[in-house]
Amino acid sequence: MHSRAYFLLEREYLEYKEANIFGIFVTPIKDNLLEWLAEVQGLKDSLWEGAVLQLSIKYTEEYNSVPPTVMFNTIPFHPNVDQHSGRPCIDFLENPKEWNGKLTMSSILLAVQVMLSNPELENAVNVEAAEMLKNNISLYRQMVIQCVRTSQHLEDLSSTGKVCASSPKYYLPSEASSRGHVRYNAIVSQLIRKQRQQTIDEKLIEIRKMEQDNNLLYQTPEPESQAAGEKRPLSKEEEPWESEVDNLVAWTNTLCTKGLED
Fold it and tell me: Comparing C-alpha atoms, which of 146, 149, 76, 147 is closest to residue 112?
């Protein structure tokens, strides 16, 4: 017997697949749908464009009365992301009073995606990133660019669970430091990419099918060659008596007109 949370998440997952949101990919990792792994890409024309950041989403049976727990597995250097736990600083995730039951899996990940490109210094949990953004924007940009490059090689994470730990500060959480956990996340990340490619392939197949249907619709049949001596079939507009008249005229043309005159 599935719980109410299960059916809600199942519906949200179907809505997510239909929406086809840019740069957001998510897949369940538990049969009860309470644990998910997601990838969020940076928005186009932003400093985080090209980034591929992995997150874990954990729900409880009380969903959607309470928000899920969202954590970055690959932690960006960002004023609004805790550099140790990977927790994003988003009001409705941190404060249950701010939570709205109408918020869905897609809206949560969209909020994370928008947060990356719109840091708020007032709610900074990574003080170092906030100070750098405020006082040395060029260095902050360099740090973010390096984070973006590092995030594109998630499957190459080392057994220490940290990537580029000195410059910039781009980590994995401490609970992900074991080799097995890192490898597991990399495998699931590959599954997400496979899911993304399958979605693209399905669209291509659908487009090709539509093109074939259109070709069949507008294709005009070639006229069949008429065999020698074969009678011409009657057209829809031609009546039987008209054919008899034509045959009679043809017969009279074969008569000897001289004999008739005599």
Answer: 76
Report the candidate in 35, 80, 29 with the shortest Cα–Cα distance to residue 60: 35
**How long is the chain?**
262
Q: Is 256 a catalytic residue?
A: no
- pLDDT score at 165: 29
Please identify which of the residues 89, 147, 164, 256 carries the catalytic annotation.
89
Instruction: Decide: 121 and 134 in contact? Cβ < 8 Å.
Output: yes
Q: How many alpha carbons lie under 13 Å from residue 4 in its C-beta half-sphere?
A: 5
pLDDT higher than 70, residue 217: no
How many CA atoms does the CB half-sphere of 230 hold within 13 Å? 8
Q: Which residues pair with 38 in a beta bridge?
A: 26, 55
Pair of tokens at residue 75:
């932690």
Asked if residue 162 has pLDDT above 80, the reply is no
Calpha distance 180→183 (Å, rounded) = 5
In which band, very low, low, confident or very high, does the pLDDT at 201 lie, cut at 50, 70 and 90?
low
pLDDT band at 179, cuts 50/70/90? very low
Answer yes or no: pTM beyond 0.85: no
DSSP classification of residue 29:
-
Whether 27 and 192 have beta carbons less than 8 Å apart is answered as yes
pLDDT score of 210 more than 50: yes
Residue among 136, 150, 23 nearest 76 (CA): 150
CA–CA separation, 117 vs 155, rounded Å? 24
Residue 221 confidence (pLDDT) above 80 = no
Distance from first CA to last CA of the chain, Å, rounded? 107
